[in-house]
Amino acid sequence: MSDAELMSIGSFAQRCGLTASALRFYADSRSLLPAEVDPVTGYRFYREDQLVRAVLLRQLREIGMSLPAVKSTLDADVVDTIRSVDDHVTTVMREAESVRQQAAAITSTLNGRSGRQIARLSGPVLASAIEQVLTATVDDPDIAVLGGVHVEAGPEVLTVTASDRYRLSTRTLVSHVDSAAAWTATVNGDDLRQCLGDLRRTSSVNVDVTDHGMTLRLTDRDDRHCRFVSESFPDYRSMLDSLPAVTSRIEVPTAALLLALEQRSSDRVRLCSNDKGLMVHGDLLPDIQIPARVNGCAVDVWFEMTTLYPAISTAIGAEVLLDFRGPEQPATVRSADRGDLTTLVMPIAAPRDTTTTGRTP
Predict the structure, then answer these.
(1) pLDDT at 111 over 80
(2) What Cα–Cα distance (Å) separates residue 248 from each residue in 203, 278, 317, 324, 331?
(3) Which of 93, 152, 210, 285 is close enough to 115 for a disulfide, judged by CB 3.0 to 4.6 Å?
C-alpha cells in the first residue's frame, strides 16, 4: 500500500471526529487498529475504508455504550448491530426512569411532609382515564403545559383534563375520599404515561400530593412519583361555559363511525347529516352512509383526521353523541349513555377544492 493511500493519525482523527488520543486508546483496546505503524517512528496510519468503523465507534460511545459492547457491535452484521443499539437504548431508558423515581422519592422525603390524600380509585379505571385524555396532549417545548394533565380533586371526585389547543379531553371519576379538600395542579404527562402499566395491574391507588409532586401509592407495587408542570393550565371551564348553544345532535354507533374513518386515506374528513343519518366523505373514496339519529340543523363540518379520530376512538360506550355548533365552533364528543368523558374537537375550514359531492380532486 502506498503512502498516498494512508492518512496520518491527525488527518484521520479530523475526518472521523475522534481525537488522536482517543484513536490511540481504541488501538490499544483493539477496537480500531491502525492500518500501519511505522517501525522506526511509531507513527500510526489509517486507511480511507476505516472511516466507517471509526465513525460508528464514535457514535456508539456517544450514546453511552460500554467498550466491550461496542467491540462486539462493531464486528456484528447490520441486523445484530441495530438490535444491540435498540437494546442499549431500552436499558438506558429503564435505568433513567428508575433514577427519576428514586430521585422523586428522595425529594418527597426531604420535603419533610407526608403529603395529603386527595383521592382513592381503582387502578385500571384511573389508567383508562389518563390514557384517554393523554391523546389530547402535545409535546410543545414552548408551551410545556400542553404536554401535561390537569388534575382537580374534591370530595368524592377526581377530574383529569388535557388540551393541545385543537382538542380538549376531560373525564371525571368517582373518588372514595369524601373528605378531600379542593385541590388542583397540572401533572407531567410523560410521568403519568410511565405509570400506566402499573396502574392497570393494581386493584386500587391512593393519590397523595405535596408541594412538589403527586404520588400514586399502588397496592402491592412500588409508589410512582409524578412531577408538576409549573405553567398555568388554560381556563378551560370558562371556555366550556362560553360555548354557543348546540344546533345539531347526532347519535351514531361508535364502531360504525370508527370503521368509516379508518377507511379514509386522507388527512381530513367531512361529516354531513341527511335524512338517513351521518355521511362520511373522504378524498377520492366512496362516501359512507351511517344510520344515525339526527336532531337539529343540517351538519356540514370538516375535521383533521388526527384530531377527530382519537376523540372517537377513546369514547366510552356503544354509541357516541356528537354535538355541533356550526362549522367554526368546537364539536363535543361524548358517550351517549355515560357523560364522564367529554372531548371537544376543533373543526377546520372547508378546503377550497371541495366539490358539491364532498370529494376533492
Answers:
(1) no
(2) 41, 12, 20, 5, 10
(3) 210
